[in-house]
Amino acid sequence: MSRPQGLLWLPLAFTPVCVMVNSNVLLWITALAVKFTVIDSQAQYPVVSTNYGKIRGLRTPLPNEILGPVEQYLGVPYASPPTGERRFQPPEPPSSWTGVRNATQFAAVCPQHLDERSLLHDMLPVWFTANLDTLMTYMQDQNEDCLYLNIYVPTEDGEYPSLAESGTCWVRLPVCPTAFYHVLCMTVSMTQLLSFISQ
Q1: What is the DSSP string of the chain?
Q2: pTM (2 decimals)?
């Protein structure tokens, strides 16, 4: 038996039911499904404009019922790569880009020698060395092209103060303070592991 055109057969509790569906209704349902998929994608991967081009970040939910999600923009260039003729020179503004730059992953960190773990345990605070193995996974990608910012933004609207004081930020883990205190927080990916000792 052939199915009549314009009819949709739906099994309902193992009983075939014939429902008349207009093709325009199917088109609207499909359009709404696509729209909500795009909206969900935009909410998950927000795009913002900068002076140099657009960047796509990542909305990160936090594993806490009190803290809201934050938007993070990772590996955002704040200067041109200090390589070649620019090596050991003052930083220059980054080049503009077209399209949307992906800012959902950390950029490379500056080259640093981290083989002597016992020295690190002696020189760094306990909260830092307790997670040293996890931290070392972020230190694997080292490159002279390391002048990038990691920006964490609260998801609620409003004007919020910065946590920076005298050019240094007291935040150790920027994501949670961003959500809890509703502040904008930036970290510099070029900061070396041992630079915390001098502060």
Answers
A1: -PPPTTEEEEEETTEEEEEE--HHHHHHHHHHHHHHHHHHHHHHS-EEE-SS-EEE-EEE--S-SSSPPEEEEEEEESS----GGGTTS---PPPP-SSEEE-SSPPPBPP-----HHHHHHHS-HHHHTTHHHHHHHTSSB-S---EEEEEEESS-S---B-EETTEE--SSSHHHHHHHT-BEEEETT--GGGGGG-
A2: 0.58
